[in-house]
Amino acid sequence: MDRQCVEIIGRNILVDQLLRAGLEVAQPLRDRGIDLLVYSDLSEDGPDFQARPIQMKASSERRFGIDRKYQKFADLLIVHVWNVRCEDETLVYATTFEEAVRIGDEMGWTTTKSWVEHNAYSTSAPSKRLQTLLAPYAMTSERWRAKLGIVAREPVA
Prior knowledge:
This protein has helices spanning about 5-20, 95-105, 115-120, 130-135, 140-150; strands spanning about 25, 35-40, 50-60, 65, 75-80, 90-95, 120-125. By secondary structure, it is an alpha+beta fold.
């Protein structure tokens, strides 16, 4: 499966979860580090419009990484969509940049040459330890509203 197909399928999996959570999704015309905007125009004693930017990393297998270039975006969620080729094995993880760096600290990645000199680290062979650290960030339609802190419509059944 070519890279473009992987990205399209990954984005559609993510959009499906967000819409099922009762959220709205927009795609910027240009990719400058933000792939999607998730938002709500509802309010519950708060602002009428709330939005969060998302950087999505889709993979036909399992890949996780951190990159300092995403540090500049306030409130950015970095979403990894794994195993897009096999619907039954698809996993979606969502972290903030800070949460991803804490995982990198726990894994010892932030002391590597890759991180120190090149500002990034990734793996295509996630260890059991990494998968355990990622478990709290595993997303489902039900978990998105809590993760985003956005008031949303009732979830779609």
